[in-house]
Amino acid sequence: MKMIILNGSPKANSKSSNTEIFIHHFTSAMKMKYEVKYIATEEPKELAQYIKTFDTILIVMPLYIHAMPSGVMKLIEHLESSCSNNQSIGFIVQAGFPESTHEKFVREYFEELAKRLHYQYLGTVVKGGAAFIYQRPKHFKKLYKLLADLGRIFEETHAFDKKITQKLAKPYQFNKFALWQLRLMDKIGLVNYEWNAILRQNNALEHALNQPFLEEVKK
After folding, report:
1. At what angle do helices 18-26 and 141-157 cross, to 10 degrees?
2. What is the mean pLDDT of each run of 10 residues along the chain (219 residues)?
3. Alpha-helix runs per DSSP H in 118-192
4. Which of 55, 124, 172, 198 lies 20 to 30 Å (CA to CA) from residue 216?
C-alpha cells in the first residue's frame, strides 16, 4: 500500500491544529511508510496531479458547522477520475459540535465524490466534540487510543474498523436527558465558558454577537 495523508486544516502543521493531532495518533502504531502533505501549503492543481501516484489517499480535515475548509474544496475541484481500479480514497473528519449528525451531509458528499471519480470508497470516519483537544490534550487519552487502533487495523486490513468508527461517531444525536443537561449548563453559563475565554484573550468578547456580513448587506 502506497499511502498519502492530506491534512486539510487551514492551520497546516501548527501545534494548535486538531487535525494534525488526529493524524499523529492515527499513524502512531503504523509500521509502513506513508507521506503527509498539507493542503494549505500546496498548489491545488499540482497536488491533485501528485496524489495520482498513490493507491491510497486519506484526507483528514476539520468541519466548520457544515462547511469543509476552502483549501480542501479547491483540491477537490482539481481531482481527476482515477485511471486505475486499485486507487482508493477515505476521509477522517473532526468537528467541534458533539453530535455526529452534523457530518451527515459531508459523508454523503464524499461517498458520491468517490463514486464519480471512480475511486474505491474507504468510508468517512467522523468525530465530534473535538474543538478543544489541542488545549486540553490530557483529557482525550481514550480518543488517542481509538485513533491509534484505527490506524493499526487500517494498515492491516486497508479498511476503517467498523466498531471503532461507530464509537468515534457517538453521540449521533443528543437524547432528551442530554438536552436537558445542556440547557441547564447553558443557564449557569458553562456552555460558552471555553469559547468566551478565547474571546476575552483576544479582546473580542464585546463583539461576539456582531453580524458584519448582514450589516454590510443592509447598507
Report:
1. 50
2. 95 87 96 96 96 95 90 95 86 89 91 95 94 85 96 97 95 73 74 77 85 65
3. 141-157, 162-168, 176-187
4. 198
